[in-house]
Amino acid sequence: MSFIIKKNIWDLKASVITDEKFFNSRRKILKNLVKGSVLYAGLSSIPQSAFGQPSSYYPPKVNDFYKVSRSITEENFATTYTNFYEFGSSKNIWRRAAQLKTKPWSLTIDGLVKKPLTLDIDDLLKKIGGLEERIYRFRCVEAWSMTVPWAGFPLKKIISLVEPSSDAKYIKFETFFDPNVAPGQKQKWYPWPYQEGITIKEAENDLSFMATGIYGKALPNQNGAPLRLVLPWKYGFKSIKSIVKISFVSEKPIGLWESLAPAEYGFWANVNPKISHPRWSQASEQQLGVEGRIPTKIYNGYAPQVSSLYSDLEKNLKDTLFK
Q1: pTM of the prediction?
Q2: 36 FRET partner, CA 20 to 30 A, in 12, 115, 214, 313?
């Protein structure tokens, strides 16, 4: 039995999906990252301002409950090898992303809630009442991974702030839209602004995390400043960056990549080594800065915390990556 929708993905424009040659070139870059020959020579000259501004919130208190058996990825790798298509399809977009102004930054929380809010990110953090640091594994759908210390707060704290109604079944996230700053947003074939969504039950899971920092300081722009979602058991494209709007809705949101290529980037996007992407295997992954590939774990190693959310999907042998 095949779990992948029988849709001809190749009918889409090549510019809409990750080109196979481009994907293979990324693998070459990853090999060079492991050898340390591509980035390290110039990283020492990167100004600290490129990695975010200092804040009284940092460094945050470490939550020792969230530990992993892997070594933490070198900061230089995690902050210079990133996907952020708003600034281009290259991984090395941190210079372009530095042009985004993240202060002040307004966040709207609306939809099916009793207490809608529009407030500055600093005011949100005051309402949340403190940050914590969690070390999470992060797995990209492109089969590379990293292990990083995120600073932030559980997503369920936002839920408690706005008190969603019983009709709210999903949460939709939306990032900024400013083509004058983000050149990738001038590409009309992408349905900007970037959107993603999860279920309320997923949002209530304690692993669901709103990150404002990384490596003990505020997020650099390329990693999603000033506020991003982190869902460690899902492929990275679900962890939307630079959020400006959070809406509680009754209908399932359709994310940017799902709208472009639903047979490749589905709603659930749970890490599953047994189900390949249509164009490459998900059975193993390359950790940034580490020699050799390692096996990928179901739900990226977080099965004990999240598998109960998908019991019906698994019972019915439905895929947890694609529709």
Answers
A1: 0.86
A2: 214
